[in-house]
Amino acid sequence: QFPFGRRLPCDIYWHGVSFHDNNIFSGQVNKFPGMTEMVRKITLSRAVRTMQDLFPLEYNFYPRSWILPEEFPLFVAEVRMMKDSDPSWKPTFIVKPDGGCQGDGIYLIKDPSDIRLTGSIQNRPAVVQEYICKPLLVDKLKFDIRLYVLLKSLEPLEIYIAKDGLSRFCTKPYQEPTLKNLHQVFMHLTNYSLNIHSGNFIHSDNVNTGSKRTFSSILCRLSSRGADVKKLWSDIISLVIKTIIALTPELKVYYQSDIPAGKPGPTCFQILGFDILLMKNLKPMLLEVNANPSMRIEHEQELSPGVFENVPSPVDEEVKVAVIRDTLRLVDPQKKKR
């Protein structure tokens, strides 16, 4: 580690958060310029919706969304119109603050006139999305999948998807949202950083049980129930590729302004965290993309009030060590020299 920077050339630079270092002229950097901005909730929604307008059938893996505050009148009008045409439609919406992470500030509403929404949208930009009410459940619990995707290069576009990911579980049995249970975050929100505070959270010592498991263990269960796991994987791969295609034009603009063609500069790669929810019919839906997915392989355990220690997490270790190892193999600068 070089906390104050390093001036001798390296093969690979591994930055913690983002990459802005004009003194790096060679080698490879583990961040793309502009990526953090591109995967924020509003920018991602805008990019995917642009593609939804052009290719509605290809981009049907992202929930219907509106950007607040600018599209608030549109949101109100469209919801009213849909309710008029189908009086039996009883939607739920999820509000996600643009800059929020780890579940911070997310809440559910049943109606655009909800006081929490109308009170906060002016000072906190957000995306409001139709909530997916029919998720696939395992052990009666809702869960999402964190998949690790390596964007190795923009030109040519080169994408790798890790064979295994994490399944992160809610800690309260799922029920479809009603006005009475909307506030129950441990039932509706899969964020690890929220559920870890639940009394029902289970730190697992193997990959098949507990509140965080490997995605492969879920695939095994689905396969034993007769699900078409091959099709599921191909749908997920398609979702990942199409999402990155939606982000690519603006990423190229950021890249070329930071590293102009013909000037010496590093090449970039980046590990992204894709958060995906499976519907009951096994259709994958994109929830969000994380530019800085956590690579921690231990969790904090409270020994006594306020006293924590770090304990190895076998599930994180199984998945993340492989992700880092294979990433370094794929970007290995020595390969060309051999």
From TrEMBL:
<protein>
    <submittedName>
        <fullName>Tubulin polyglutamylase TTLL11</fullName>
    </submittedName>
</protein>
<keyword id="KW-0067">ATP-binding</keyword>
<dbReference type="InterPro" id="IPR004344">
    <property type="entry name" value="TTL/TTLL_fam"/>
</dbReference>
<keyword id="KW-0547">Nucleotide-binding</keyword>
<keyword id="KW-0436">Ligase</keyword>
<dbReference type="GO" id="GO:0015631">
    <property type="term" value="F:tubulin binding"/>
</dbReference>
<dbReference type="GO" id="GO:0036064">
    <property type="term" value="C:ciliary basal body"/>
</dbReference>
<dbReference type="GO" id="GO:0070740">
    <property type="term" value="F:tubulin-glutamic acid ligase activity"/>
</dbReference>
<dbReference type="GO" id="GO:0005524">
    <property type="term" value="F:ATP binding"/>
</dbReference>
<dbReference type="GO" id="GO:0000226">
    <property type="term" value="P:microtubule cytoskeleton organization"/>
</dbReference>
<dbReference type="Pfam" id="PF03133">
    <property type="entry name" value="TTL"/>
</dbReference>
